Amino acid sequence: MNIADIRSQGPVSTLLLIILALLLVQTSQASSSNPLPGDEIQAEEPAPATNIQLPALFSDDMMVQRNQYIPIWGTAEPGGVVEVVIGDDHQKTVVNKNGTWKVEMNPLPAGGPYTIEVIGKQSITFENVLSGEVWVASGQSNMEMPLAGWGQINNFEQEIAAADYPDIRLLQVQNATSPTPVNELEVDGGKWQLCSPETIPEFSSTAYFFARNLHKNLDIPVGIIHSSWGGTVAEAWTSKLTLEEHFHEFDEAITGLQNSGEEGKEEKHYAPDVLEDEQKARSIDPGFKNGEPVFAEASFGDEHWQTMSLPTLWEETELGDLDGVIWFRKTVDIPQSWTGNNLLLSLGPVDDADITWFNGQRVGSMQSYNQPRTYQIPGSLVNAGANTIAIRVLDNMGGGGIYGAPAQMSLKLNEQDSLKLAGNWKYKVAIPVKSNNPNQPTALYNAMIHPLIPYAMRGVIWYQGESNAGRAYQYRDLFSRMIQDWRTNWGAGNFPFLFVQLANFMDRNEQPVESEWAELREAQLMALSEPNTGMAGTIDIGNAKDIHPKNKQDVGMRLALNARATVYGEEIAYSGPIYRHMEKIEGNKIRLSFKHVNDGLQAKGSDELKGFAVAGKDREFYWADAEIVGDNVIVSSSQVPHPVAVRYGWSANPACNLYNGAGLPASPFRTDDWPGITKENQ
Hints:
6-stranded antiparallel β-sheet; 11-stranded mixed β-sheet; 37 strands; 30% strand; alpha+beta
């Protein structure tokens, strides 16, 4: 029976007609949504990606962080498929419209070697990959200081010869600045390196000894990503967002940095590489003519040169962030009685290099930015009356100029007879260099930290602070904000952040003093209030005459003790004594208590406990007698009948010897909160 036959049967048949029609519609819909085998509609799958590229963080011999998801990322032509394979783990993604892609591979246990394949139209393969503990090492010159090269640490030749650890992997980030965050970076050798006597000489010594200690004690592979730059300030390592939100004193500098990236800016300046070749530099230096230093000649007319008061860093003058070459000249009037006598010319430290002439004759030169200059002047050059000193100063980056204390600049016949040289000097900018100044807010974060994010790692070790000592109160907040900044931007939670407290440096003071370096150490100590931080004290292994002490073995070891105890769970001592609180007792005596006493406090190397000072309400400090009683120290002074405050190790280079039973030094501290000498500095 068809539909026409049903319709002819009347009302009942009409109802059946309606039901049949509905069934036919449902059958038609089912047929259209469920095609028969062989009739499937094929979705078009994106083609394999082309032109796949990855950052230099990814290479043969790389180290990935164990037991964490492993981000792997790069660029390619938009719309293509990228597949990443590690063993049985396969992850795919489609390149977005901006030409970037990222996958997260499943965690791996420590060990290897593994192979990582990145598959597109063409494939990239990374061989000999290890999984272990990855740490980022950053800061300024004491982190940068290599085993050999300019560093030459203690026993560097023996340490280099013994550095055969193929399960320690090294990645050296090259120095760079940027006005805005970038994603690319350059690394030495273009890839990760196996630790060996051939690869370790120019690597960070502190980071190497840290890695070696972890590797030996944890018995797992360790990788170090080293990204530091000597002489740099903490704000250069901090992102724009954090500085703009919390430190408006940097607003103008941030704006200036961003403007410096505009096309055509500073066109009259030379490129930085002109300073790397002395012959090239002299060829464009107006101070030389046919190879002869005409600006050094006594008869040269400098009456149209500008004037600068020395000593000073020229960045603190109207020149601003200038790198390059500046000539200085000064005419001094020498007494008749000095004629024909040998003299000693002292200039103080020069940043970075100098060549110095006396009456047109070269008398000395040096290429170390922190070493005072002292040059012998032969008597044959010394005349009665007017004599000319000429100095050519070359600055590669950061601070530049003749910058010591005024008393360091003199011309001496003997200890009794001398002429002061501090004051006005004539100067001329000879080679202005396009700024590559690393000490601009955000410049190093943008170029040397941002490109590392979000590489999977365990934590950070940090050695910096010297360049912020004059702004130690500001550093209290700045350093903590920088730590928070890195953690937020990495998106990896409160990863461990371990840092080195400043070592002892400079001449020792006979009486208690105020001190920028002591205030900076206090700011570092306060950073321990940030979660998951640790501090390695080095107040006992510095050098009064060298801001770059050679004992980096103990620095790396003390950082490693922090990591092994607080990160890896070893039950070991990892910190020197840290002041807890004070309680006044019995007249002129104050009792101090400490944590991290570890088998008891001790006065190392002496029966006398040194380094403590006390003050009354007049805030005048006097050296104190100190005695260890159990886990406490009791201090007093006959000159302070009613003490209210105690300080310990409070100077740039203190004589202090409080240790714990584990042989680790106590951190300098103070019990007062009286305003320091850096409180108003920004």
